[in-house]
Design goal:
Helix 2 links the parallel strand 2 and strand 3. About 40% of the residues lie in helices and about 20% in strands. It has a single domain, classed as Spore Coat Polysaccharide Biosynthesis Protein SpsA, Chain A. Helix 3 crosses helix 6, helix 5 packs parallel to helix 8 and helix 7 packs parallel to helix 8. It has about 240 residues and is an alpha/beta fold. The strands form 2 sheets. Strands 3-2-1-4-7-5-8 form a 7-stranded mixed β-sheet, with helices on both faces. It has a two-stranded parallel sheet with strand order 6-9. The model has no long low-confidence stretch (mean pLDDT about 90). The protein is globular. The two termini are about 35 Å apart.
Length: about 240
């Protein structure tokens, strides 16, 4: 059996309004690529029609599968999707498609630099960020400063929903991931540093979606708690 080149992991929770459009655009993009691919939709216990719509869509496309989970959080969905997939490279891809699929190749090209992880950034020189609400922008700056001081230095955007991993890195790091909620992104980067995986941050074009499910204030407080807990676990050798 030939190895799949790229797995795209889409975490979902009540995405019935846009998941079909997201899958359609990914399929259109991959139709012009010359490598093998799969899409793993990792559903975090949706209570709307998300699962049914994906099941109907996947009946026409054998390289699309859905992983139905109980509701625990985005980190839980990403973890299970990463470990379920089988690609040489495994890309986390938000369901709201705030990054267009035509930027996927930038992630794959970056692996030529002998890195293990490529993370998209909305804050690097060369990034284009559109329609970001002022409160979200200010909270993002505060949180990034907090991460630099208390967690892991060197990244301008830890929370972007587009990150790609080699299979080796994904299978090692996500197997020991413990944070199920919004703070999992920082936990993953802290674990990458602990186990000496090489991470590259690249600029992307990102467009804020008006129906984003992120509650900026509540999610920031939750992530801060998760980061401090992860720091404690690392210092206590609990990974």
């Amino acid at each position: 059996m030939n190895e799949i080149f790229l797995s795209v992991i889409i975490p979902t929770f009540n995405e019935q309004k846009r998941i079909v459009q997201t899958l359609d655009q990914l399929l259109f993009y991959f139709s012009s690529q010359d490598y093998s691919w799969e899409i793993v939709v990792s559903d975090d216990g949706s209570t709307d029609l998300t699962v049914r719509l994906i099941e109907e869509w996947s009946q026409k496309h054998s390289n699309v599968q859905i992983l139905s989970l109980i509701h625990k959080g985005k980190g839980w969905a990403v973890k299970n999707g990463m470990l379920k997939s089988s690609g040489k490279y495994r890309l986390m891809f938000d369901a709201d498609m705030s990054m267009h699929p035509n930027q996927i190749q930038k992630f794959l090209d970056s692996f030529q630099n002998d890195c293990d992880v490529v993370i998209g950034s909305r804050n690097l020189q060369g990034s284009i960020k559109k329609n970001e609400p002022f409160l979200r922008k200010m909270m993002g700056r505060f949180f990034n400063l907090f991460v630099q001081v208390f967690a892991v230095k060197g990244y301008l955007d830890t929370q972007c929903g587009y990150k790609c991993f080699t299979s080796k890195c994904a299978e090692q790091i996500f197997a020991i991931q413990k944070i199920w909620g919004w703070g999992f992104d920082v936990e993953i980067l802290m674990l990458c540093k602990r186990y000496q995986f090489n991470v590259e941050e690249i600029p992307i074009n990102w467009h804020h979606q008006l129906d984003s499910k992120v509650n900026v204030f509540n999610s920031t407080i939750s992530i801060v708690q998760d980061v401090l807990l992860t720091k404690y676990r690392i210092l206590s050798n609990k990974y």
